[in-house]
Amino acid sequence: MNKDKRYYLARTGHTEQLVYARRSVLSEGKADGLRVIDIDNGGSLTCTILEGRCLDIAKLNYKGINLGFLGKPGLQHSAQTSVTPGEFTRYFNGGMLYTCGLRNTGPNNCDDSGQYPYHGRLGMTPANEVSSIVNWDKGFIEITGKVELSALFGYNLVLNRCIRIPLFGSEIKIEDTVVNQGFNDENLMLLYHFNFGWPMLSEHTKIKINHNSIEPRDDVAKKGITSWNTFELPIDNYQEQVFYHDTISESDGFAHAHIINESLHLQVDISYDKEVLPQLIEWKSMASGDYALGIEPSTSRVGGREIENKENRIFLLKAGEAKIFKLNLKINTL
């Protein structure tokens, strides 16, 4: 489509008739006070970004079709929750993207440096220095901000996030820069929890991943190893299955996971830089009421801080060092 702003100014009263990035504050229930950014890119994408929770993506629609999974806890302001061990299932909203880390991914852990809740504190931490701009000259909506995790006499980590959504397009580009602002080297754990839900996820869905190998997390997943890429109707009391994929980078230098729903004529491509996100975790939950598919590029597996450290799967971010993580979500019609 034409991206010349004057073309649209001649045809509308205000360009927000077509495109906007609108910041607001929710005012009801457990979400009361939660800052959000609602986006319409003028073409096919509408989404809600959570300014009050790490600039994660709560909801994503493509031409009115829901793509993501929203968990039973729903949206919550971080002040309404206790990000402590044992509480994760009471506040995990899922969403199209929930970012985990920066010092633990996986189960609750405890070591000499303190306690670490399930999947860390990052996903429930508000962003600051937030900016939301519709840039007609460059042809994209840009959301930026930073999320700080720190402790007295301890770590000082900052995630600087930039989300770009092309005007009239069907893609979301995420670039995160994690900086160790402290004066000690720090163990870094970071996981991008992309969550697909109905109707994008259904018995008509399949996934394709170019990989060297696939490994089940446990005996439960071992039972489903032959059906890791297909999905059933919701099943009461289904036990989640988790698989580890050793992916192969493609010609663009990124590894890809393709989620395909032929009945909707849609394909969603999650791509990421495997050099800095060497693990790809698949979370398959066919449970009634918790019907979800997680595609999770990660720095480590989800054994938790202690186990991942023993298995040498945790990155060391040196004092003053920065590391860049790039991911893309692109939707195509079949």
CATH class wording: Mainly Beta
Distance between the termini: 20 Å
Number of strands: 22
Question: If classified by CATH, what would the architecture be?
Answer: Distorted Sandwich
Residue stretches low in confidence (pLDDT < 50, at least 5 long) are none
| Principal-axes shape call | globular
Instruction: Write down the CATH topology.
Output: Beta-galactosidase, Chain A, domain 5
Number of domains: 1
Count of individual helical segments: 4
Structure description:
The structure is a single chain. The chain has one domain: Beta-galactosidase, Chain A, domain 5, CATH 2.70.98.10. It is 6% helix and 46% strand. The chain has four helices and 22 strands. The chain has helices spanning 5-9, 88-91, 219-222, 305-310, and strands at 20-25, 35-40, 45-50, 56-62, 65-66, 97-102, 109-111, 114-116, 128-135, 140-150, 156-166, 171-180, 186-196, 205-209, 211-216, 241-247, 255-261, 266-272, 279-287, 290-298, 315-317, 322-333.
Question: Which key phrases capture this entry?
Answer:
single chain, Beta-galactosidase, Chain A, domain 5, eight-stranded antiparallel sheet, 6% helix
Describe what is shown at a glance.
The chain is mainly beta and 334 residues long. The chain has helices at residues 5-9, 88-91, 219-222, 305-310, and strands at residues 20-25, 35-40, 45-50, 56-62, 65-66, 97-102, 109-111, 114-116, 128-135, 140-150, 156-166, 171-180, 186-196, 205-209, 211-216, 241-247, 255-261, 266-272, 279-287, 290-298, 315-317, 322-333.
